[in-house]
C-alpha cells in the first residue's frame, strides 16, 4: 500500500493577494493598501508647513523693512528740521530796519537768503528742502520731503498760549517735515526779544 505525501492545497490566488506588513495580514479583499499614498500625504504636509514658514518669514521681513525705512525717514527729518531751526534762531527777533512791528517777510525779502528776522520764515515751505540760496541740499537724497514753517507770537509766561502777531516778546517756531504726505518730524523752538544775540 502506497502512501503519498501530499502537500496541503493552497489557494494560490489568495496568497498572491495577501501580504504581511509589521505582523498584520492585509488582503486586498475589501481593502486596498497603497504604500505610495503616504508619500503624497507627507509631501502635501511638508508643502503646507513650508508655505506657513515662508509666509511668516515674508511678514517678518516686511515689518523689518518698514521699520528700517521709518528710522531712515525719522533721521533725515530730524536733520532737516534741526538745520532750519538753527538758521532761524540765529536771526533777529524782529526786523531791525523796519518801522513798526511787521510780521512776515518785508517787501524786498524775496527768498530765504534775504530773511533777517524770525517771523520772515512764517508760512515758508520747500519741497525738496534747499539751502537759503535755493540750491539743493543733497541732490536726490531728500526727494519727496517737504519742510514747512509756522511762526507765532506766544505768551512769554505760557508758551502754549498763542498771541496776536507782533504783540509779545516771545515767538514759537514750529518746523514740520513730511514725506509724501506723511508727518515725519515736528520740531518746536522759541525765540525771545531779550535773547543775548538779538
Question: SSE layout and pairings?
Answer:
Blueprint: H1 12-16, E1 18-21, E2 24-27, H2 36-89, E3 125-126, E4 145-155, E5 158-163, E6 170-179, E7 182-192
Antiparallel strand pairs: 1-2, 3-4, 4-5, 4-6, 6-7
Shape type = elongated
Q: Determine the mean pLDDT.
A: 79
Percent in strands = 15-25%
SSE string: HEEHEEEEE
Uncertain runs with pLDDT below 50, 5 residues or more? 13-24
Number of helices, counting only DSSP H or I runs of 4 residues or more? 2
Report the sheet with the most strands, covering strand number, pairing sense and barrel closure: 5 strands, antiparallel
- Rounded to an integer in angstroms, the radius of gyration calculated over CA atoms is 41 Å
Task: Note the gap between the termini.
Answer: 142 Å
Number of strands: 7
Helix content: 25-40%
Briefly summarize what is shown.
This protein is of the alpha+beta class and about 200 residues long. The protein has two helices and seven strands; from the N terminus they run αββαβββββ.
Descriptive notes:
- By secondary structure, the protein is an alpha+beta fold.
- The strands form 2 sheets. Strands 3, 4, 5, 6 and 7 form a 5-stranded antiparallel beta sheet that branches. Strands 1-2 form a two-stranded antiparallel ribbon.
- It is elongated, with a radius of gyration of 41 Å.
- The N and C termini lie far apart (142 Å).
- It has 2 helices and 7 strands.
- It has helices spanning 12-16, 36-89, and strands at residues 18-21, 24-27, 125-126, 145-155, 158-163, 170-179, 182-192.
- 30% of the residues lie in helices and 24% in strands.
